[in-house]
Amino acid sequence: MIVLGIETSCDETSVAIIEQKENDDFGNILAENTLSQFKKHSKFGGIVPELASREHENTLNILVKKTLNKAKINLKKIDAFAATTGPGLLGGLLIGSNYAKTLSLANNKPFIAVNHLQGHILVSRLKKKINFPFLSLLLSGGHTQLLIAKKYNKFEIIGETLDDALGEAFDKTSRLLGYGYPGGPIIEKLALKGTNTNFFKLPKPLLKSDDFNFSFSGLKTSIRRITEKPLNKTLQYNLANEFQECITEILIAKCEKAINLFKKKMNLQSFILAGGVASNKFIRKKFDFLCKQHCIEFIVPEKNLCVDNATMIAWAGIERLKKINKCDSLTMHPKPRWSLEDL
Amino acid sequence: MDYDINISVKNLNETKYLAKVFSLKFTTPLFISLKGEIGTGKTTFANFFVNHLSEKKTKVLSPTFPIVNIYKIKKNEIWHYDLYRIKDKNEFFTLDFDVALNHCVLVEWPELMEEFFPKKRIEITFKENRADNRNVKICLLGFNSSYYKEIWKLLKKKFLKH
Questions:
Q1: Which of B61, B66, B91 sits opposite A50 (nearest CB)?
Q2: Do B65 and A172 touch (CB under 8 A)?
Q3: Cα dist from A179 to A185, A186, A226, A229, whole Å
Q4: Residues B60-77: pLDDT tens digits?
Q5: What pTM does this model have?
């Protein structure tokens, strides 16, 4: 089975073609092309939604052709067309899903509407056998969720952010320190030069709460207070370092509690870290260690599969077609807000 | 006419009451700008406001990443915008404000696009005093005196006893 996937929910335009041979559990990436709009947007210091949808529109056609060439196949060989239909920015979602619907109609092959977050979580199964149920922490610019994946299409959110997403906390911290966007890689780099992790005494919101929820808004407030006075480079490095340590401690504490509570009860064998923030090396290392301590397998996708990409969309499409051979209606409308619990 | 009211909000409960005052006077269209630095309580206000109006507990998350979140309440909608990530004011015309303006609009980081906003609107500015304590400036722009008096009456109950 060969599926073409399209991802246009935010800053990246991405197209991928994945093949899964019969009797094979895994998928093979025939080709993927991703064009990030960060460079175009960073000129403006932030995202420009209209520019984003126009860019998706301009580049999508070229990327599809390029990807087909790279995979050395033509459209007739594609068995289904998958596109992200939510959550995300409506303009981008419309362009990607309409493109996939058109291809599906013209080639008389199924159209599959894929949830972006489901793609992030399932992509780990592309190359590796991971049995359900498993525990997963999804960290991205717009989402922070701790969940139990029970089936390819059944997720239970056990905790999530009550205010800001983690990626947003990174972005705002970077901005407050006088650096750019996206903040994740910038903070990670600054933190490497930091030496002290207990100088500013940053708060650790909800660290000891009884649930699995997160809150990063208060942390943002304290960083704003600290940065009201100009900081020298050393203090900037230390603040970035302390911020990263602090949020990691909170994430680890919540996940450790979840592992203790659910590992035996639900026979969880794996823990998957997913989403753009999962490409942070410091966070990866800490979670690797946590999982070793608790004898649970630690899985995190390669960096290029953590950030937004179409491979995960095509793969989620394959997982779905494998289980139920049912496609989506061409009249379905994208959903800017679409919870994993409503698949 | 324009009216200014300055109050001091001491804690979360008082922020909740402030949001309640404006939810009690809820009619559409309604346009509220929420100003203030990072972490001064703009999203917190929006959260209380939406939850005062909605029948069931509603999760109100930061709209910074999605730019706008839409909440359905009874027969109305609340469009909760955040312009923090946007740098070009002409984006105003691509963000569905034409639809939003028929409903209730809350806008965080509104400064960039103010010239396009309705002349009749409420502006709430949060400024941190210390810890949980905020100085809040409420500007009623283009309202008549009876609206101002009603808001003032409701606010006076709680905030002028201190």
A1: B91
A2: no
A3: 11, 8, 15, 16
A4: 999 988 888 999 998 899
A5: 0.88
